[in-house]
């Protein structure tokens, strides 16, 4: 018996030993069999090693446009592997410098193989033996080029005392930190960063954190920065150049600075004030203070985007940060506020709490967009920015009405696909669905839940469902279910509404700008008012149809047989509404009698325009509705009315050229009274919105060829040429004057064009340059357009600005397309690696309106498409089809000519 027990014990021991041996082998075997190949073509890095802390040293050579550097990365090896795989691109890695030291035994390992896979932007280090689980230190030395592509570590240029100089700047989002140093370049791989720079001693050198030590050694200095808290690689930043700055402390002790070109500090003061106030506001709103000791904001002369929210070191285009009292327009001022507020919102939403993967990019961008309006409204309530938010909302609706749209939460399988999702879906639809949810849950409940989300995920990463969970917990509403219907499928519904025996009958179907219906279905928060803003109600439409008995709901004040019914009150819902004829007529009446709010007036017009374009409503009825806005005074509503007029004019020119003059006269008649009201110069005490409106109205009158406006604009422009400080051409109306001047330019009358180039060359204010560039292609003469387009490609225009001149006049459409084809190779070379290339495609392709053209465009790009523009191209071609169909339906519309002529004569 004893033997038995002994035997059993021995056998059991043996079995256990063998089992654990085989278990260990089985755990090791697949990894020992790992090969380089399996890491290629993967969307994400393998997870064997987790970076904890980077010690980065960089030495940029500004005149040779090169840099050298080294990185020591503390890693945690969390699974058996012989490989370390991380990102690197366009770096020349010194393979002999690569080593890995286990913390446990201090043994220095050299990789048996170092493979740089440029195609996948990864660096694969292969070791002879399996690495030990636990911490270790990876060191790598490398060299790179300060490129001219405005991404990674790049060179930007500026003039100092007449000399052209280089500065070194980083732009890492979405995935270009790997172009500066080898790293785990994914948002979820948060680590601490300790940065040291070797730079010329005369220059300002900035990074995310404050400087802790600066050692000067002759012409060079070594600058070390405090270690950062946990953050993602795409938020690391460095700027080295010559700058001036202004500074101010927040009430809770954060040192805020705005850096600009030497001599421009006066232009930096406005943004500084805005930033300080915004940081204070966000501290209260998110219930967490700004988390770094300092915040620097820098104007960069060459910058691909509007701005970038690098943690503690936000970079901007000059136009989005600098404000000049004398030469900036009201619209420039507002842009500075919105951009600053947006990037500072990211310091919480994005930097402190970061999306887990690019699929959740919208959490960053949609949120920052929404919060920027909250801040701007707080700082400048008289600007009524929430009504202006509707321009973003509408852009979201326009893009999402395409079959080639994408869901807010979008699958990303390759870094190449990331750039294209920084679009109106992530930003504008994203912000709009947040606004919809906030208005459904109530502002206070929304803010509280948001603050608890920020606290819960601080210094880590979150997914969309984490945000919904926090809001669900704070509200007891089914947020997850409700919102999934908006973020996981593309598109949105159009709600048709009809009156049937004292009942309102609703039906939802997916709105498509092409006129067909998709099969999406949503949980729609319906709001409505009837006859008065005091008689409102709301409910969730969860199925395809719904009915509302109005008898109980209606008070004496309103009567369903005659009262107006407005759905989607104040346009907080991300959907369109199609009213039956009777309800539409009542609304038009309510607009004329000024019973509706500006946001509702905006929404009715925009829905009507979209339905008309989708051929669900006649152009005749759209024009009649537009006629109801003859006494409109509100900036935002007019801004949309003007833009809709531009679009209708373009379609009319293709569909019914014989009626074009009538269309123009009709539009002029809508806006002319505003010229009388607003005049050409600022009135004392006038509002910010009137100042912006003046510019829009005069531009529209110039575009539609109103003779007196053109003459007056040109007269004032001449005065301006004689004296750039003349009060007769205020910055608010300069763009209008430039457009007017260009409308008169032709091959035989080049004066206006040459003069504008002079203005461009002589100013050092970026906003002035921008105004000129965006007017330069407004001439109706194709030869001048071609010359202007070629100017955009010249060395006089920074690549960041060339895209500003691509909205060519209606008459220049064909010239622009030929120009794009002729220059495609060059354009791809300069802009092809970034997102700006999409602007070339979209701006030049989308205005066409024929099926033949769509085919020609498809053919041209068939052999040229790169994944960078594939979605944009499909969307642009879809727009051409939509336009083409619209043209056909307008051509077939009966009574259009008669109705239009009636409108022009005022016989509505
Ligand atoms: N994070 C973006 C900048 C960015 C855009 C990086 C695209 C990578 C790709 C930044 O926060 C941003 O959204 N900037 C906007 C300005 C904002 C006010 C809408 C921009 O650059 O247009
Ligand atoms: Zn952003």
UniProtKB/TrEMBL annotation:
It catalyses: Release of an N-terminal amino acid, Xaa-|-Yaa- from a peptide, amide or arylamide. Xaa is preferably Ala, but may be most amino acids including Pro (slow action). When a terminal hydrophobic residue is followed by a prolyl residue, the two may be released as an intact Xaa-Pro dipeptide. Residues 270-486 form the Peptidase M1 membrane alanine aminopeptidase domain. CDD domains: M1_APN-Q_like. The active site is at residue 343. It is a peripheral membrane protein. Its EC number is 3.4.11.-. The chain crosses the membrane at residues 7-24. PANTHER family: PROTEASE M1 ZINC METALLOPROTEASE, PUROMYCIN-SENSITIVE AMINOPEPTIDASE-RELATED. This is Aminopeptidase. The lineage of its organism: Eukaryota, Viridiplantae, Streptophyta, Embryophyta, Tracheophyta.
């Amino acid at each position: 018996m004893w033997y038995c027990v002994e035997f059993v014990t021995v056998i059991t021991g043996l079995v256990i030993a063998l089992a654990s041996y085989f278990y260990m082998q089985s755990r090791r075997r697949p990894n020992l069999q790992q090969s380089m190949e399996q890491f290629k073509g993967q969307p994400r890095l393998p997870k064997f090693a987790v970076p904890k802390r980077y010690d980065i040293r960089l030495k940029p050579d500004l005149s040779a446009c090169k840099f050298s550097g080294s990185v020591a990365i503390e890693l945690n090896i969390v699974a058996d592997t012989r490989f370390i795989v991380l990102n690197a691109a366009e770096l020349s890695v010194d393979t002999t410098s690569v080593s890995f030291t286990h913390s446990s035994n201090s043994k220095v390992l050299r990789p048996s193989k170092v493979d740089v896979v440029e195609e996948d932007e990864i660096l694969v280090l292969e070791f002879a033996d399996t690495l030990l689980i636990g911490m270790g230190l990876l060191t790598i030395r490398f060299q790179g080029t300060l490129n001219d592509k405005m991404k990674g570590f790049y060179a930007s240029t500026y003039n100092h005392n007449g000399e052209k100089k280089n500065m070194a700047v980083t732009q890492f989002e979405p995935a270009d930190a790997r172009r500066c140093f080898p790293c785990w370049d994914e948002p979820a791989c948060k680590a601490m960063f300790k940065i040291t720079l070797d730079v010329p001693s005369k220059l300002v050198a900035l990074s995310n954190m404050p400087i802790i030590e600066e050692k000067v050694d002759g012409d060079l200095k070594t600058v070390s920065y405090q270690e950062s808290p946990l953050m993602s690689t795409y938020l690391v930043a460095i700027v080295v150049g010559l700058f001036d700055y202004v500074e101010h402390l927040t009430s809770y002790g954060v040192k805020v600075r705005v850096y600009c070109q030497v001599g421009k500090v006066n232009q930096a003061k406005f943004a500084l004030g805005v930033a300080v106030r915004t940081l204070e506001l966000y501290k209260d709103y998110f219930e967490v203070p700004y988390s770094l000791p300092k915040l620097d904001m820098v104007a960069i002369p060459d910058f691909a985007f509007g701005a970038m929210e690098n943690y503690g070191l936000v970079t901007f285009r000059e136009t989005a940060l600098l404000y000049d009292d004398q030469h900036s327009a009201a619209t420039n001022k507002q842009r500075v506020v919105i951009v600053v507020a947006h990037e500072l919102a990211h310091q919480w939403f994005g930097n402190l709490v970061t999306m887990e993967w690019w699929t959740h990019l919208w959490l960053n961008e949609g949120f920052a967009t929404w919060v920027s309006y909250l801040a701007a409204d707080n700082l400048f309530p008289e600007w009524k920015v929430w009504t202006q938010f509707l321009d973003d909302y509408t852009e979201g609706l326009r893009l999402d009405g395409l079959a080639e749209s994408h869901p807010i939460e979008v699958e990303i399988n390759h870094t190449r696909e990331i750039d294209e999702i920084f679009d109106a879906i992530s930003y504008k639809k994203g912000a709009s669905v947040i606004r919809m949810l906030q208005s459904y849950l109530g502002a206070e409940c929304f803010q509280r839940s948001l603050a608890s989300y920020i606290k819960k995920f601080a210094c880590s990463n979150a997914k969309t469902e984490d945000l919904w969970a926090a809001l669900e917990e704070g509200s007891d509403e089914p947020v997850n279910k409700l919102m999934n219907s908006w973020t996981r499928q593309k598109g949105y519904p159009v709600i048709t509404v009809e009156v049937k025996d004292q009942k309102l009958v609703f039906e939802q179907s997916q709105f498509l700008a092409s006129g067909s219906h998709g099969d999406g279905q949503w949980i729609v928060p319906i709001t409505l008012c009837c006859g008065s803003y005091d008689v409102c109600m709301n409910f969730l439409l969860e199925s395809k149809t719904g009915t509302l008995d109005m008898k109980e709901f209606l008070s004496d004040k309103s009567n369903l047989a005659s009262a107006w019914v407005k759905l989607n009150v104040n346009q907080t819902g991300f959907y369109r509404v199609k009213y039956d004829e009777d309800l539409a007529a009542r609304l038009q009446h309510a607009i004329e009698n000024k019973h509706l709010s500006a946001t509702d007036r905006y929404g009715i017009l925009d829905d009507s325009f979209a339905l008309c374009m989708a051929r669900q409503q006649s152009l005749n009825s759209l024009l009649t509705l537009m006629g109801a806005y003859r006494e409109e005074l509100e900036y935002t509503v007019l801004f949309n009315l003007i833009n809709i007029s531009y679009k209708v004019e373009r379609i009319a020119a293709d569909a019914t050229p014989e009626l074009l003059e009538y269309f123009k006269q009709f539009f002029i008649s809508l806006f002319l009274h505003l010229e009388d009201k607003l005049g050409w110069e600022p009135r004392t005490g006038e509002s910010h919105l009137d100042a912006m409106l003046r510019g829009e109205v005069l531009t529209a009158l110039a575009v539609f060829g109103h003779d007196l406006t053109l003459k007056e604009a040109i007269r004032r422009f001449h005065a301006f040429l004689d004296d750039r400080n003349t009060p007769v051409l205020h910055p608010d109306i300069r763009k209008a004057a430039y457009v007017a001047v260009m409308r008169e330019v032709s091959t035989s009358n080049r004066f206006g064009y040459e003069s504008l180039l002079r203005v461009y060359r002589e100013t050092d204010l970026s906003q002035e340059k921008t105004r000129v560039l965006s007017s330069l292609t407004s001439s109706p003469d194709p030869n001048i357009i071609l010359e202007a387009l070629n100017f955009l490609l010249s060395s006089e225009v920074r690549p960041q600005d060339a895209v500003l001149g691509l909205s060519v006049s209606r008459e220049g459409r064909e010239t622009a397309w030929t120009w794009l084809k002729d220059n495609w190779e060059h354009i791809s070379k300069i802009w092809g690696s970034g997102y700006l290339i999409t602007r070339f495609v979209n701006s030049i392709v989308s205005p066409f309106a024929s099926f033949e053209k769509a085919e020609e465009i498809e053919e041209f790009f068939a052999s040229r498409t790169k994944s960078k523009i594939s979605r944009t191209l499909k969307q642009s071609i879809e727009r051409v089809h939509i336009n083409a169909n619209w043209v056909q339906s307008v051509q077939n519309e009966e009574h259009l000519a008669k109705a239009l002529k009636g409108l022009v004569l005022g016989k509505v």
